[in-house]
Amino acid sequence: MADKKPYPYAKKAEKKTDFEIKQAEFITSMAEYGDFPGRGLRQIAVVGKSNVGKSTLINKLTRQNKLARTSATPGKTRLINVFLLNGDFHLIDLPGYGFAKVSKAEQERWGVMMQRYFEESGELLHVLTLVDIRHEPTEDDVQMNTFLRQMGIPFTVVATKADKISRAARLKQLAPICRALLVQPWEVICFSGEDGTGREDLLAKLEQILTPAQ
User: Fold this and answer.
1) Within 13 Å, how many C-alpha atoms sit on residue 1's CB side?
2) Which residues pair with residue 131 across a beta bridge?
3) What is the pLDDT of residues 57-100, one digit of tens each?
4) Which pairing describes strands 124-132 and 89-93: parallel, antiparallel, or unpaired?
5) Phi, psi at 100, each rounded to 5°
6) Domains of the chain from N-terminus onward
7) Which one of 1, 62, 72, 190 has the fewest CB atoms closer than 10 angstroms to its CB?
8) pTM value?
9) What region, left, alpha or beta, does residue 87 occupy, with left being phi > 0 and alpha being psi -120 to 50 degrees?
10) DSSP state letters, 166-204
11) Alpha carbons 214 and 201: distance in angstroms, whole number
12) Residue 32 near residue 79, CB atoms below 8 Å
């Protein structure tokens, strides 16, 4: 009997890396993107829906539970938050989008804020675009994905809240995410801020982004 081929979305082993976040500090919050202490260093941005777990990811990544504020009320983070990691690069936490209870005018203000950031940040290297692994990407997620492609900005899809479903369910949920966002399953990082799933993969990705090609 011939050996069975591996399931196409089989979970890959977490990448091993020596890269680690050894130092992390909050720098500032801004209602509009502009100058801030230390501006000029390389940047990696984090985007996603208001309740997708951006703050949880940042806290898990840096091993600082209170570095980024988490809230039970989605849509509360309405500013651009800047963090300095390893004294070497800035992590830019952009306002969450897609929260229905926010007024249309406020949503438009956020959109202008983020577009200005993407247009004016010459230091931006890469964007981590977060989606909830339990649900298909929303229209807002697709629009953000399309915008990044049109702007020519490299990005990585991170599927958060992986601990909320079984490993088998994770594999199943990757298919609609990949179809909607036009990425391959092996390009998506499944992540959990609760049990640490995907942290090593995300660190490996950061190392790849920050290490210039030889």
Assistant:
1) 2
2) 159
3) 999 999 998 898 765 444 455 789 999 999 999 999 998 887 65
4) unpaired
5) -65, -30
6) 24-210 (3.40.50.300)
7) 1
8) 0.87
9) left
10) -HHHHHHHHHHHHHHHT--GGGPEE--TTT-TTHHHHHH
11) 21
12) no
